[in-house]
Fold these 3 entries.
Entry 1:
Amino acid sequence: MSARSWITPAVARLRTTHPYVVDAALAALVLFATSLQWIFPSGKDEPLSWQGYLLGAATAVPLVWRRRAPFGTACAVSVATPAMAVYHAPPPDIAYGGLVVLYTVAALCPPWQRRVMLVGWLAGVTLTMIHTDKTEPFEYAFHLMSVVCAYALGLVARVQRAYTAELEDRARRLERERAADTERARTQERARIARDMHDILAHAVSLMVVQAEAGPVVVRSDPARAEAAFDAIATSGRDAMAQLRRILGVLKDEEAGIASRRLPQPGVSALVELVRQVGESTGLRVELRTSGEPRPLPPDTEVAAYRVVQEALTNTVKHAYASSATVELDWTEDALTLAVTDDGHGPTAPGGGHGLIGIRERAAACGGSAEAGRGPHGGFRVVVRLPDDERQAALG
């Protein structure tokens, strides 16, 4: 078993242990290290006394509160350590408690307290050794370097803790941003699906209502026409059900997190069939005109173009009381402009109702714009401009 395999779990358990338990164990360890001079006398005729032992204990016991009151603990140990050295019964070989409080002050205290404690210990150690008999030159370097190293380790721990806190805070922020982005994407997807369901249902129901109203009128005078009307109702219902199943399948697959094969959404190429269906189902004369060079558009723009024309024709059937309508597609280098014009009265709801609001939202979602109002020769006209971002990028 490698050393890392057992050191890492031990450090993890130590970090989760209550601070008082850790600090009490550290104080006991320092007290034991200080007591070694009484347990194993060196035999150099150094005096031993219970007063000296109490001074030694005073350098260890305050460490229990080193994290609760770091500067106060450092002051207590800083007073007891030179007192023990001056009392000289026995003198401390290594200031264990002093090294711990220097580390603690460097890691936890504000700058002025750190500087005061470092300068005080360097001066105190130097003066104590000057007034101590038989001090060897190497002892100055040893004790002063011990003080500096303990302080430096505390600074390293401080920087490491700040770096870890910053990483954790950044991770929390990223997690919150990721959750917000996910929720925003879900909201946008729900809004898109809601618009699609509105367009599908409104279009299909409008066609079925028109045919259902016409069917009873001609059922006796023109049975063939009545039969065609009922066939149109059935066709519109089946088409609506198929599109709803596709949308509900998208919802089901997204909830389950499964990517499945789905039928493609209708695009610009499906407008020919849409115009034909509306004309045959409602009796409305619908003409499709195209200018410019048609080309594939981004998938979202393709769907938006189809749904915009579908919604505009649905509004014409439901509200305009029109006899004819024209769908114009104007292809330019950087955009597709759609215009749906009828010879009716147009919507009467303030702001154009939910249909026109949905048209504007779809155009805005693709970076385009939508306008609606009176046509140049009467009637009602909807104009939507959908930019071709991919085309612009290629030209740029």
Note: Residues 255-262 have pLDDT under 50 and may be disordered.
Entry 2:
Amino acid sequence: MFMNFRRVHKLQCLQLLTTGLVLCVLMICWEELDHHVVSHMRSYTYRYLVNSYDFNSSFGHNQKDSEGVDNGFESYPYLINHPNKCVGRHSQSWDDVLLLLFVKSSPENFQRRQAIRDTWGNETYAWSELGASLRMVFALGVHRDDGQRSTVQRALLQEGQAYGDLIQQDFLDTFHNLTTKLILQFHWAHEYCPQAHFFMSADDDIFVHIPNLVKYLQQLLSRKSGAKDLWVGHVHRGSPPIRRKESKYYVPEDLYPWSSYPDYTAGAGYIVSADVAAKIYQATLVLNSSMYIDDVFMGICAKTMGVSPQEHVYFSGEAKAPYHPCIYSHMITSHGHAADVRSLWKAATDPSVHYHSRGFLNNLYCIAIRVMLLCRPNYESMYPCKAAFI
């Protein structure tokens, strides 16, 4: 049998050219490939096989710097505070509060705060319509722009006097200070509202279906064991740190050396029980706040205290929930609502919503609708497909 060497050489050249082309593409796209594939493989391997974090080595709290200056949370004084928010209306004793709701807001976002006051954050509605004692406050820093700061601050002081729901400390309200804002929430809750059965942290661009949430929390309290060890929301498991410097969420290895974050809930909206809130408070006293991604810092605190997050399929991640009555009947939170809060509140709390899922046929109809809305390929963190069958 004779071999055509010229043809062999041509095939080898073609293979070499193809291999070279593939290598060139990989070299060009390696950073993106590493972010989306390799880093996630490393992260899941670390999370589920190694699962060893020594946070005390990187996040041990140093009370004072070399000059003896306190760098901790207490260095930020209150500029606006309402310490009697959770005190009884007609007495000096603590009120029985079902839910303390902390909304993270930027100083300039007055319209968002007002929409929340008028809808899902309305304490009077929660009491008169749902029989639930709700306390809602906004967590704020100071405006980041020097030129606008004094004007915005005057407006905030007037707003605080008018509504009695602003809690502000003297730190710049920026992305890299979100962890400081998280610490503010847990410290304020510990100091001024320790009797609340549940604590919720939420962004000012999410929608909370308060009737569904109150029903859920009351069911938890009705259990014989009560509500203990609860940290519930949209859970991120085995997420890798982002090492690309151009990313908003970039975290260098010298700040966080591990290949995986501990499990944590999306910071847009999550709930903890009173005992977990106390544990997170204790963790903030011993861990420094150099991790500026507040969701991850919450995960670090919880991991340190032996608390694990629990998934609830109707807490959304980074995306809006579909607009449909069959969704509203189960919805807890939906993200990305800066302009449509009032219209969504009106639609989601309409009494006719619950009739869509009552009865065998209506229930089947709603399951089919939710399957079409939730089970199509979607890379955004909305509700998972399994939520369609609940």
Note: Confidence is low (pLDDT under 50) at residues 62-72.
Entry 3:
Amino acid sequence: MSHRAVVVGAGLAGLLAAAVLSAAGVDEVVVLDRDDLPEGPEHRKGLPQGRHAHLLMTGGMDAVEELLPGAGVRERLLAAGAHEVSLSSGMLARTPEGWLRRWRREGPVMVTCTRALLDWVVRTAVRERTAVEFRRAAAVGLTGSRDRVRGVRIAAPGGDVDLEADLVVDASGRGTRVVGWLGGLGVSGVRERAVDSGLVNASRVYRVPDGAERFPLTIVQADPYVSRPGRSAMVMPVEGGRWLVSCGGSRGGEPPADPEGFLRYTLDLPDPIVGRLISGAEPLTDVHLSRSTSNVRRHLEKLPHWPEGFVVLGDALATFNPAYGHGMSVAAFGARVLGRELDRAGSLTAPGLARRVLRGAARSADAAWTMAVSQDVLYPGVRGGRPTPGDRVLTAYTRRMMKAATGSYAAASAIWDVTSLRTPPTRMFRPGAVLAALAGSPLPPSTEPPLTPEERNVLRGLDRTGV
């Protein structure tokens, strides 16, 4: 008897879920998406955050490679011009507690490229290594009952049509209609929580100036501890000899869309280094704005009743403020849970499979959710949450750890391990990390970015601001 799985959404979560299903031996895997999928690394409307900075952390990259074994996704990305950036040595980071030092030691890395390139490389690998079918179609609902989903309803010119499936995966992203779809089956009572700092992202692409090709990724982080809107900016190397420059501002501190205002915004940050860099670089695009940035958690795993044959992954389950760079990694973790549960169950129609996947995917999102929300609730004007006593305790400890990390390798490595999603947040509470936090930084705080002499010359040569 043949089986069919339908995946709604051709973003990273959907692509990886489709790869997992195909590898598990499902006879027919169909991926539905509203967009015409581009044949190259091009932006598409279905990814509202696609033009802004995306970071694929160590944990996420490892999961992608595990889900597409032998595809060489990392190598393909690097060959296409993506960059691998060491958190310990390849990054200039000004935190609310000061500049992090750079250490000549191995540490976790992140892959930087445009989201368009990442999706294209993964989509190409899936097409080459599986028999997954991609269809342009808009899913408008589920078929079946409150006990079992039987397929997907698709919009069509002559009237909606039903596509039967043994398993449906909702990987439709931020725009998911999963709550309404479940309601149509008689499943209600979904608890949702949204924490919205009002973050607006503004991004522009520049040509990397001659001589600046090896300049490190540079970020001035937002400060949630000063009772003012958070404001940040990052210069990130991407493919094609370009810099992707992204600014972010929470409610009341939003970046503007005009080029002059964009530059002023970067220069008005606690350190003007981003503005100084781009003041001497050639812009290649206009400034693109996006406001779809809130943290949203749909606690589907807590429903007392869940239909067989239906799984929710990626942003459709938990969406994070993109400033923290965790969304893509969490999507990969959810797909990995799907693969592991399919291996254990041995069948696409095994009783309880969908619920086990849902619970595992929700657990895999917990760390990223906690990190994002515990910061966002501190910004003025945030909607959907206030700091709890637990948040305040965690914040105080995190600040102490971050202050120590400005001059302590032990503290910095604990933070890198957690933010790269290589280890769970409990890493911050291991004895060595706690001792590092209590001891503080053995080195005095640095008031200047930790640049090499060559990098300092590059910055000086680019600076047109007179700052």
Note: Residues 4-48+115-195+293-374 form a domain with the FAD/NAD(P)-binding domain fold (CATH 3.50.50.60).
